[in-house]
Specification:
The protein is an alpha/beta fold. The chain has a domain of 104 residues: 2-Layer Sandwich (GMP Synthetase, Chain A, domain 3), CATH 3.30.300.30. Helices cover 34% and strands 23% of the residues. The strands form six sheets. Strands 2-1-11-10-12-13-14-15 form an eight-stranded mixed sheet, sandwiched between helices. Strands 4-3-5-6-7 form a five-stranded parallel sheet. Strands 17-16-18-20-21 form a five-stranded antiparallel sheet. The longest helix has 17 residues. The protein is globular and about 75 Å long.
């Protein structure tokens, strides 16, 4: 089997302090554009970003936080990654938390992770309220806009406060450095040491603390930088939650390249901000891609332009065969609605319908799929922009080895090419284990050290990975046949009448698993149809899908929901609630 090994333009940094000082070499180049208040936009340069981190880390070191655990909770803002990397520069452990969690859940994670301090935005601090007092933290660092330059006060004044402003910390760190305090410059970093504890999103109703090392984070960020087609002049619109390792890894990868990141201020303003910032690239999860796709084709239908669109599509496909590419000029109206410069979308977190990928490609926008999981920091593979295969998430990145396993006589053995099994990973991207949970850690690894991802898929002859679904979602029928819900969901989501869906197993009165589709129809159908009319419409939709499926995969039962599914902050459906 072939192994992909690209020439590494962006090497792995020796430690996080080298990464931070290295990105400062981009100088006055804008790293972040972000909103302040409702509509004001500010900018932060690479040099200011780098300096702030060194200053923060120096102040944190002076507060004796080396080796401690520091939580981080906020909406997307420039201070998030600064706090994240400053914590690592201090040789402390970062614990990013999902701001969408309930206060008692946050409190639980703070206690489980044994956190000594917390970086938090004013908005999240208000949400936690009095619960924050129960966490018994030594320090709370608040990310307000107030500036403290230069710092005035003694160490005793600084250290005696339980609540310290983020920018007071940077000012104090700068003061210490100017006074000759070497602090973090005396530290050495163990690449194998724990750097982060990441609580999994809980789509199955449970959360475990994933322990990632310094090496995990630095290696995958370098791999992300080397395995995507982005360059110095690219501009991103950031829409994913920053606490998630997918977004964090991409953000750290960008520090290698020198791109500019525009932080979206609300999901409801994504289309407006596309036009405002005119990004060239996007990093998304499938639900966002599906939503954009639906809006484009709804608008084409609404304007009665299906015929014109189909003619342009046929023309561009023909011209591309003779090396003439007119996709972007002919579909300029669509591309303009996405800001006018969008060329590339990286999509990860779950599989994407190959037909949807082809639709975007036909319009001049390339979507490259990646595959990963938090326990793998999270990158495992990328659908390489040099030789993509539609439907594949690409080959394994060079820092790891992937194989597909099946159970034979109670033992896990490798599958043949194109045979479905569980995807297993071994390499520099794989976690240290689950925090304070040796039993769960042991159960997640094979005897020879491969991490069992829980994802089902296959490898082709070239080593390209194809994802078929999650092991926990697999439906096993009474006749022993396997049904992959994600495959059926792809067919359903192609239908205009369906907004969201999930395929699950329901048990009938004989104790047999029945393939059941839970469907959220489009809002106009919910608003304009009676219950019977809605049932009939969905029945027709399901019949049209069943015609394309073998009999054992066909949907036998339909449940209709009038509200969207409960989701994680990365827009994955919480299936355990179904």
């Amino acid at each position: 089997m072939k192994k992909y090994n690209p020439k590494e333009k962006y090497p792995v940094y020796s430690d996080v302090r080298a990464l931070v000082t290295g990105c400062g070499n981009f100088g006055d180049k804008t790293l972040y554009k972000y909103f302040v208040g409702k509509d004001e936009i500010k900018e932060l340069s690479y040099k200011a970003f780098s300096d702030n981190i060194i200053n923060l880390a120096t102040a944190a070191y002076a507060l004796n936080l080396k080796g401690k655990k520091i939580a981080l909770m906020s909406e997307a803002r420039p201070e998030f990654l600064q706090a994240y990397l400053a914590t690592l520069c201090t040789n402390a452990v970062i614990v990013p938390l999902d701001k969408e969690l309930m206060p008692d859940q946050i409190l639980g994670f703070l206690k489980v992770a044994e956190c000594s301090a917390l970086f938090i935005s004013p908005e999240c601090k208000r949400k936690l309220g009095e619960v924050l007092n129960d966490a018994k933290l030594d320090y709370v660092f608040v990310m307000s806009e107030e500036e403290y330059t230069p710092y005035v006060g003694s160490y005793e004044d600084f250290a005696s406060k339980k609540e310290i402003n983020f920018y007071e910390m940077t000012a104090y760190g700068k003061y210490l450095l100017s006074a000759g305090f070497m602090g973090i410059y005396n530290l050495t970093y163990d690449p194998e040491a724990m750097a982060a504890i990441l609580f999994t999103s809980g789509t199955t109703g449970t959360s475990k603390g994933v322990m990632l090392s310094h090496k995990n984070l630095l290696v995958t960020a370098s791999q992300a930088a080397n395995n995507t087609p982005f360059a110095y002049n690219d501009v991103f619109l950031s829409v994913l939650p920053m606490h998630h390792t997918y977004e964090t890894t991409i953000d750290i990868a960008i520090l290698h390249i020198g791109c500019t990141v525009c932080i979206n201020n609300s999901i409801k303003y994504v289309l407006r901000n596309l036009k405002r910032f005119k990004p060239t690239g996007f990093v998304l999860v499938p639900l966002f891609v599906q939503t954009i796709h639906k809006r484009i084709f709804d608008e084409i239908k609404k304007k009665g332009k299906q015929g014109t669109f189909n003619k342009a599509l046929k023309l561009t496909k023909g011209l591309r065969k003779v090396k003439i590419d007119l996709r972007r000029p002919l579909f300029s109206e669509i591309i303009s609605s996405l800001g006018g410069r969008l060329k590339t979308i990286i999509c990860g977190g779950a599989g994407v319908d190959p037909e949807l990928l082809q639709d975007f490609k036909d319009m001049g926008i390339n979507i490259y799929q990646g595959f990963g999981i938090t326990e793998c920091s999270p990158l495992v593979s990328v659908d390489l922009y040099t030789r993509p295969k539609i439907g594949s998430v690409g080959p394994a990145i060079p820092c790891c080895d992937v194989k597909v396993l099946k159970e034979v006589n109670g033992e896990l053995v490798p599958t043949e090419a194109n045979e479905i099994g569980e995807i297993a990973v071994k390499g520099d991207n794989v976690m240290l284990g689950y925090y304070n949970d040796p039993a769960a850690t042991e159960a997640s690894f094979t005897e020879d050290g491969y991490f069992l991802t829980g994802d089902l898929g296959k490898l082709d002859e070239d080593g390209y990975i194809y994802i078929t679904g999650r092991k926990k979602n697999l439906i096993i029928l009474s006749n022993g046949k396997n049904v992959y819900p994600e495959e059926i969901e792809e067919y359903l989501l192609r239908l205009e009448c369906i907004n969201e869906c999930a395929v699950v197993a329901r048990t009938n009165n004989l104790g047999e698993a029945v393939v059941t589709a839970i469907i959220v129809p489009k809002q106009e159908l919910i608003d304009g149809c009676s219950e019977n009319e809605l049932q009939e419409e969905m029945k027709k939709a399901v019949l049209s899908v069943n015609e394309k499926l073998p009999s054992f995969k066909q949907i036998r039962n339909v449940e209709i929901r009038r509200s969207e599914f409960d989701k994680t902050s990365t827009k994955k459906i919480k299936r355990f609630m179904l």
